[in-house]
């Protein structure tokens, strides 16, 4: 058989292994958008076909490498991930593939080339399986600052160093030593990947602890709120007979005017709800009731416009993150407005439910300017930046994981945050629609 034809047959035979490796890597850290396995298989077969066409093209080395990385980037779009994590995953797995191809020390013969095709793919598969077992994270966390710089620079510099040294006269004279370079670069990239995973896992655990503390404060507030209602009901029940006896004696004595006044006062007492918010959804009611006290203490007017049915089947952690952090950000911004300016200090929360979707809009005025990063994220103005990692970034990440919509705008010293949560079902045992406006 023709040697060149045999090389191409072996190349095409091991090429599907690369598709398996990519799917194993992406599926470990991200959630696949394509639910149908058949459709996903067809897309990966299409990737294999385009990859084979690139291999047989006459493109130079660098454009060919860029085309292969572009194909991997296209495959990553089949999985849900943030932009930073998607780009890092693409750059890292591309570096792993390139370095693994160059790290197999086999003789430069026809048989050595064919064997290297198989061995390099097996090495990639082994490394990806090892990463799947060792990593703790799931493509979450913020790749920003020095951590993000190291994450992106390491694989990019590794590819650049490999290309630079491949043409070195020293390695042309001693080609048997060249595989040492990609092997070392491969080890460095794997160690940095695991280090980043550990750092982000620690950050995630810290964020979860802060979230649990926040949720506990809401639960404690709900407990005290329910306890106050129970105590009030018990007091009223205990005194009710005595009140009726007193009213009866006044009616019998002809003091109808005084009795009517006491009845009006009694109705006002029993009809007045101590709860600030009462939509029939304990999670929302508890959070807004708790936050209203914080707003009142800061002399911030809280304006509610809620049109929600009772007994919505809400994810407690999700709603706590969204409402808790959004309110805290709005409260801080409104608190920074000097009272002497005479400007309004308020937070307006609009929530309504339509077509199994929960729409949330939060508005607040602010003073000064808004700092925005190069990727569109808002930058904190707090001096302790590490202690304030939960905020709009955490809301955005939570909404992306929930498949919701997240958008913020600011103009005319007014900040607006808009959120939409889909597939929010109702407990059919609940009553009718409850609307509340303040």
UniProtKB/TrEMBL annotation:
The chain crosses the membrane at residues 6-26, 38-55, 61-79, 86-105, 111-131, 143-165, 177-196. Residues 315-421 form the Sensor histidine kinase NatK-like C-terminal domain. Coiled coil: none annotated. The keyword Phosphoprotein does not apply. GO terms for molecular function: ATP binding. InterPro entries: HATPase_C_sf (IPR036890), NatK-like_C (IPR032834). Keywords: ATP-binding, Membrane, Nucleotide-binding, Transmembrane, Transmembrane helix. It comes from the Bacteria. Pfam families: HATPase_c_5 (PF14501). Gene3D superfamilies: Histidine kinase-like ATPase, C-terminal domain. The keyword 4Fe-4S does not apply. This is ATP-binding protein. It comes from Paenibacillus rhizoplanae. The lineage of its organism: Bacteria, Bacillati, Bacillota, Bacilli, Bacillales.
């Amino acid at each position: 058989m023709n040697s060149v034809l045999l090389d191409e047959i072996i190349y095409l035979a091991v090429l599907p292994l690369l598709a398996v490796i990519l799917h194993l890597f992406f599926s470990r850290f991200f959630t696949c958008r394509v639910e149908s396995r058949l459709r996903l298989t067809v897309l990966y077969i299409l990737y294999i076909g385009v990859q084979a066409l690139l291999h047989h093209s006459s493109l130079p080395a660098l454009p060919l490498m860029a085309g292969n990385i572009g194909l991997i980037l296209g495959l990553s779009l089949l999985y849900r991930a943030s932009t930073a994590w998607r780009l890092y995953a693409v750059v890292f797995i591309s570096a792993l593939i390139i370095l693994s191809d160059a790290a197999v020390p086999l003789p430069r013969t026809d048989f050595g080339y064919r064997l290297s095709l198989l061995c390099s793919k097996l090495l990639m598969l082994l490394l990806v399986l090892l990463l799947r077992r060792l990593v703790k994270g799931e493509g979450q966390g913020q790749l920003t600052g020095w951590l993000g710089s190291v994450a992106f620079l390491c694989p990019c510099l590794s590819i650049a160093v490999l290309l630079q040294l491949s043409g070195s006269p020293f390695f042309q004279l001693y080609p048997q030593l060249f595989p040492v370079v990609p092997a070392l670069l491969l080890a460095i990239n794997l160690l940095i990947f695991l280090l980043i995973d550990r750092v982000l896992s620690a950050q995630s655990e810290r964020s979860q602890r802060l979230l649990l503390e926040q949720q506990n404060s809401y639960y404690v507030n709900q407990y005290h709120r329910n306890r106050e209602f129970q105590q009030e009901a018990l007091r009223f029940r205990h005194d009710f007979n005595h009140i009726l006896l007193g009213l009866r004696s006044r009616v019998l004595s002809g003091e109808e005017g005084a009795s009517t006044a006491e009845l009006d006062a009694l109705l006002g007492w029993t009809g007045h709800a101590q709860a600030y918010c009462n939509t029939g959804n304990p999670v929302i009611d508890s959070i807004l009731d708790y936050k209203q006290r914080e707003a009142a203490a800061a002399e911030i007017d809280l304006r509610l416009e809620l049109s929600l049915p009772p007994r919505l089947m809400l994810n407690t952690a999700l709603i706590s993150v969204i409402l808790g952090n959004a309110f805290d950000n709005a409260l801080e911004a409104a608190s920074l407005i000097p009272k002497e300016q005479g400007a309004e200090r308020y937070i307006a929360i609009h929530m309504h439910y339509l077509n199994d979707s929960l729409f949330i809009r939060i508005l607040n005025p602010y003073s000064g300017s808004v700092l925005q990063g190069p990727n569109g994220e808002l930058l904190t103005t707090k001096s302790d930046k590490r202690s304030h990692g939960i905020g709009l970034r955490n809301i955005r990440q939570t909404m992306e994981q929930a498949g919701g919509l997240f958008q913020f705008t600011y103009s005319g010293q007014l900040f607006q945050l808009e959120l939409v949560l889909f597939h929010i079902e109702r407990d059919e045992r609940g009553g009718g629609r409850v609307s509340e406006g303040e």
